[in-house]
Specification:
Radius of gyration: 19 Å
Shape: globular
Largest sheet: none
Structural class: mainly alpha
Length: about 290
């Protein structure tokens, strides 16, 4: 009975995270449209589109490599469902989150290659290429460990309850992870994986139910990334669900503002800027290790 209760609670929280994440992605599009002088779609548009794709026919391109073509879409959702459990529900280890994040890059690469589409392949290659620019994630985790002496998310939150938010102690570290959050937002200046020059990147050929599954994964990803950033640097805020939700709305608005006013960078420039931020973070990490 305890196992069944846990599964029901996990599914309920997954539904909650999807609804919140999908609504925030719709809010993201709305803010961008308003800033650019357009009315924009309704805030619930992301949820509407996700539901719509569940009633569309699944297509299998003649170039698709089955069953990988289907499997990677399911893996995309499972990765972020796992991340939701590890980070938000259990508040467990950041190392596991890094492992899941790396697995997500493999899933994106496989998703693009499995379709056989040149756009999908390009999106998959860019996904692996962009991973080289996400070194700030590893450096930031190292710095957080040095300061808090733990990698358990729950313990990091408790540390901030006693010692104050880490965003004031580690501003460079917080900035590096904030750039990572920005890079995962739709229409981001760092969004080279799904750039308009390659249609929808690794998702180009996935349609119908498979596309809907990937959209659920993206909504969960946005919820998890926002929550994790707030938990790591504004820890006490996540202890109150209403305050945590308000913080996620504010953070989404800031990201939307940046996306609305920033042009899409080329893959080369996107990676170089993020590597530069990573270098500063690594220097900070080295300094803390020496001292």
């Amino acid at each position: 009975m305890e196992t069944i209760s846990y599964m029901i609670n996990s599914l309920a929280y997954t539904l909650y995270a999807f609804l919140i994440g999908g609504t925030l992605l719709g809010f993201h599009r709305k803010v961008i449209a308003r800033i650019q002088g357009r009315p924009g779609p309704p805030i619930i548009q992301y949820l509407i589109q996700t539901t719509k794709f569940y009633f569309k026919e699944i297509t299998f391109p003649s170039t698709a490599g089955n069953p990988l073509y289907v499997f990677v879409a399911l893996m995309d959702m499972m990765v972020w469902m796992s991340a939701l459990s590890i980070a938000v529900i259990f508040q467990s280890s950041l190392l596991i989150m890094i492992g899941l994040y790396i697995l997500q890059k493999i899933v994106e690469h496989g998703c693009g290659l499995s379709s056989g589409s040149p756009y999908g392949k390009m999106g998959g290659v860019r996904s692996v290429f962009s991973a080289a620019a996400e070194v700030p994630l590893f450096a930031a985790v190292g710095i957080i460990y040095i300061v808090t002496n733990t990698l358990m998310i729950g313990d990091i939150i408790n540390y901030q309850v006693i010692n104050g938010p880490l965003i004031f102690q580690l501003p460079l570290c917080a900035f590096a992870l904030f750039v990572l959050v920005v890079s995962k937002a739709p229409f981001s200046p760092f969004g080279i994986v799904k750039g308009k020059d390659i249609v929808s990147g690794y998702m180009t050929e996935h349609y119908g139910l498979l596309h809907g599954i990937i959209m659920i994964g993206d909504a969960l990803a946005w919820f998890v990334l926002l929550w994790l950033f707030i938990a790591l640097f504004l820890g006490p805020l996540v202890l109150n669900p209403a305050v945590a939700l308000l913080s996620m709305v504010v953070l989404t608005f800031i990201v939307s503002f940046i996306c609305a006013l920033s042009p899409l960078l080329t893959p080369h420039h996107s990676v170089m800027i993020q590597i530069s931020i990573a270098s500063l973070t690594l220097i900070d990490l080295a300094y803390r290790l020496i001292h």
